[in-house]
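Exercise 7b. Backbone tokens:
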């Protein structure tokens, strides 16, 4: 029964945490028994079971309970199969969504070598606009996961494609995550490539795209500022914050300065 399998999946994370805490008694139980179940349920015929499996996998990754070898040899291969060009549409949408969510939890090397090539392919998926929409909505998070070099070499060309997509929702999603993408690039790329691209979004024929671009204008401009003098920095959760100056701290206005936070639209979209 699918309800039984779903319930089982919901119990996997607490069992895994217990096994981790009792590892001397159960050194290989999680890797031998539980992890194969999680991987198998990612391809279950029932969508509720698959969803429970995806949620369990993310919790396990967040808790750092999955070994690097399991990530590279079991998790990534199944996600690459599910997101392949000839994969079922529903499976492909789910796979790209889980790839985007887990990117921030994996090492940069794993993301760049195993998941980034497929992500770039999915950005150009001509069959399903839902796939491109997920890629656009999470683009800033992927840039942050792989760093400046891979972003400028591989992701920026795909970002240009998405920013000129025929579906206005794609262009709107790009406008919303523009600050996060810009923050990952060098000042030269920011000035020479992203600025003209942003102008095209702010002049878009669709008013929803223009509105999203205007809302991202301030955060985008802030990425040109020198963090050491402007006090702007990106938190781990993807929000742009203002670090109080020593003068503010000495004058007792630290609490006021800390309350000013500009949220990255990439985080909201994700």
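Sequence design result:
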């Amino acid at each position: 029964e699918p309800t039984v399998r779903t319930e089982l999946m919901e119990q996997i994370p607490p069992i895994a945490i217990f096994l981790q805490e009792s590892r001397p008694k159960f050194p290989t139980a999680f890797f031998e028994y539980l992890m194969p179940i999680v991987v198998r349920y990612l391809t279950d015929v029932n969508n509720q079971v698959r969803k429970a499996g995806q949620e369990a996998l993310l919790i396990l990754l967040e808790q750092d309970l999955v070994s690097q070898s399991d990530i590279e040899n079991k998790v990534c291969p199944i996600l690459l199969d599910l997101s392949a060009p000839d994969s079922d549409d529903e499976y492909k949408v789910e796979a790209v969504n889980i790839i985007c969510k887990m990117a921030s939890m994996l090492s940069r090397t794993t993301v760049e070598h195993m998941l980034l090539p497929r992500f770039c392919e999915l950005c150009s998926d001509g069959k399903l606009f839902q796939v491109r929409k997920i890629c656009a909505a999470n683009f800033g998070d992927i840039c942050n996961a792989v760093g400046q070099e891979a972003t400028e070499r591989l992701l920026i060309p795909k970002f240009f494609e998405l920013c000129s997509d025929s579906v206005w929702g794609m262009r709107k999603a790009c406008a919303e995550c523009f600050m996060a993408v810009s923050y990952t690039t060098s000042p030269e790329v920011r000035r020479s490539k992203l600025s003209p691209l942003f102008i095209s979004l702010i002049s878009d024929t669709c008013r929803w795209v223009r509105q999203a671009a205007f809302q991202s204008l301030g955060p985008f401009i802030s990425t040109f500022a020198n963090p050491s003098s402007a006090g702007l920095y990106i938190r781990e959760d993807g929000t742009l914050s203002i670090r109080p100056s020593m003068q503010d701290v000495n004058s007792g206005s630290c609490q006021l300065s800390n309350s000013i936070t500009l949220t990255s639209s990439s985080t909201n979209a994700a």
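Instructor comment: The chain is about 70% helix and 5% strand. The first strand starts at residue 232 and ends at 234.
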